[in-house]
Predict the structure.
Amino acid sequence: MTPQVPRNELCPFCAEPIPPDQASKDHVFGEAFGGRVKVPCCRSCNSTIGHDIEGPLHSPNSLLALACAAAGLAGKPLRGQYRDESTPVNVHWAEGGAVPRDPKVRVQEKDGTLSVEVGGTEEQVRNVWRGLTKKYGSSIPSVDEALANATRTSDPSPWVEIALTNQLPLLHKFAAKVALSGGAAIWGKRFIATEFADALRKILRAPEDAYQPDAPKCDLKYLSTVASDARQVAPVDLPELVLPIPGPGALPTSQVVFGALPGEAEPRTGIFVTILNFPAPPYGILVPGEVPENPTLPVVLREKLGEQAVTLKLDEIYFGAIASLSDEV
Ligand SMILES: [Zn+2]
């Protein structure tokens, strides 16, 4: 299905009309995460969010970089250290574990003696050797001769130490950002102008030191509440909510779920964001207020890598949402 993205006229991030010379488009789930659905926004808001929130999440050694690497997706290199080496190297995932991303090359000319040391996969060594042969000619052995005498390990090392950073305050803002542009993609202007969207913008603009690690986040258990509540209201059978399960064979999927939390004096909506089967539970934030229409029904905006988005046409969102809850993941 081709995404039917409404014309918003308003930017989801500042709620102001978009000046024609400032028109830009934001990827709901982030282009670097494989996202394709886009919504109109101002260029300056887009670049601020890209710079302040999305950029750092793609920095090397973030938990998301590990998730991308483990899912075989392109991403920033992970910097790690093999147990038997002292120098940190960039590693990537290949069959059999983490391998150095770049070959190690050391060339020394001392007292008329040339010593060459190359480490890496066979392909990497052959490539480097080609360059060395051009430079040093027959003063170094042929690559086959060198490989015949090389020390080989079938697995560079099963142990790579990687210091990971998990940027929770940023993840919190990122969830608010995905919800803002996801809501804009689903409901358009009617969403952007609500107090609910205002509450999301407040999270987006909060200084990072205002983040409280123990502030209430939307608990995963609410996801099943959201599903069972919808089952009572929905005129169709709603199957059990299926969460993306990380691991081999899992489909790279990104999704945002909006669901009303029942039994609250003041209406609150739980928002869960999952990015490309990030190997952690969906990140949930709790927002005062409710979505513009039929707030008791959960709305899911989901997109799969390499496929177009689902659940976007306004007159289809509710049943589309229910249907996509039952998608096999
Ligand atoms: Zn804006």
Remarks:
- The CA atoms of residues 31 and 37 lie 9 Å apart.
- Residues 20-59+168-325 form one domain.
- Residues 1-6, 234-250, 307-329 have pLDDT under 50 and may be disordered.
